[in-house]
Amino acid sequence: MKRNLIYLLILIVLGFITYYFVFREHEESYPKTEANFMVEDTDEIKTIFLSSLQGENLKFTKKDQEWMVNDSIEIVQPLVQDLLQALRDQRAVQPVRLSFHDQVIREMSSNSTKVEIYTQKGKTHTFYVAQNAAPDNLTYMLTEGAKRPYVVKLPMQNTFLGIRYNTKLSNWRSKKIMYARANEIESIEVKYIDSLQYSFKLTQQEGKEPLVEGATPSSNPLNLKRVNAYLGLWDSLYCLGYETRNKIKDTILSSGKKLADITLNKKGKPQQTLSLYFKPVTKGTKGMLDIGGEKYDFDVFIGWLNQRDMIVVTRNYAQMMLRSYPEFYESD
After folding, report:
1. For the chain, what is the domain count?
2. Which of 39, 43, 172 is nearest to 115 (CA)?
3. What's the domain range around 247?
4. pLDDT 10s digits, 241-257
5. Predicted confidence (pLDDT) at residue 18 exceeds the cutoff of 70
6. 248: alpha, beta or left? (left if phi > 0; alpha if psi -120 to 50)
7. Which of 119, 284, 289, 324 could lock 198 by a disulfide, CB 3.0 to 4.6 Å apart?
8. Is 122 inside a domain boundary?
9. What's residue 1's pLDDT?
10. pLDDT at 282 (0 to 100)
11. 217 and 79, same structural domain?
12. Handedness of CA 152, 158, 164, 167 (dihedral sign)
């Protein structure tokens, strides 16, 4: 009986040792001067800087409970939450082995993201994240001023963290454009370049009916149903993407054929503008539009957004924005 009890105790001890060394994920404790990668309370973060060796720089700041990049550009909020989750949960597993140290440093010196974290206390973290995955999908990180890089991972996950520290603006920014809820809109003005009779300005003031003005006053009553439907679409407008090739941007802005200018004023926010241009025919053009002997893409337009970004807009979204003055005075 005593012998059986001894065997049972031995099995329990062996089971505990097996769990501890094989199945349990260890959380080693390393000095912050060497492995300062984790932010315990991400709610305290005010600003995040990401920069690459290729000169790409992103500044994330929180405004009205939403994150913006580079002070004014809207971004995909779930992507920021993924970044914050990484900052909160990532752990240093072990220092890079000495035999791999020089190789890892060389890789990180040519392809890594510098991360700077600011809270109310000032700068609290500065470290580098390798953009090449380590074996087994692990991530190398190096605290600024530390002697050795570390292998870093999320507990119980096999996730390469480098992708969450990407510095390409196009991977972060939202494709939603000119966002405004109906009750936030003070005015919308659409000016057609070659058809001024269709141009209009829609304004609304609290406690009053909306007003739609055009070149020639209409004798018909204003169709409020159409006005409200038009105001309601501005919170769900998207572009196909952003055009970053400077040659195309310069050509469109200097000699492109403009269709219309749109101006949107939103309560308490900077004015938004969008100039829409006909898109020249390219190899990918499916349908063509002939205007005065010149051929343009039938399905897609080019937009110059807020005097800063060139975007690609489908015909469907362009038509949603580009209503005409007489339409607001027609019956259903």
Report:
1. 2
2. 39
3. 182-329
4. 998 877 888 889 999 99
5. no
6. alpha
7. 324
8. yes
9. 55
10. 85
11. no
12. positive
171 DSSP β-pair partners? none
**139 and 131 Cβ atoms separated by less than 8 Å:** no
Q: Within a domain: residue 324? A: yes
Enumerate residues 6+ apart whose C-beta is below 8 A from 96. 104, 140, 148, 149, 150, 151
d(CA 62, CA 45): 9
Beta bridge partners of 274: 262, 305
Same domain? 283 vs 228: yes
What is the per-residue pLDDT across 276-305, written as a single tens digit (0 to 9) for each? 999 998 888 889 998 888 999 999 999 999
Is residue 20 situated within a structural domain?
Answer: no
Q: Strand, helix or coil at 308?
A: coil
Q: Is residue 17 one of the residues assigned to a domain?
A: no
Phi, psi of 135 (to 5 degrees): -55, 145
> What residues contact residue 54 under an 8 Å CB cut-off, 6+ apart?
167
Last residue of a domain, one of 128, 146, 171: 171
Q: Are 189 and 201 in contact (CB under 8 A)?
A: yes
- Asked whether residue 316 falls in the same domain as residue 196, the answer is yes
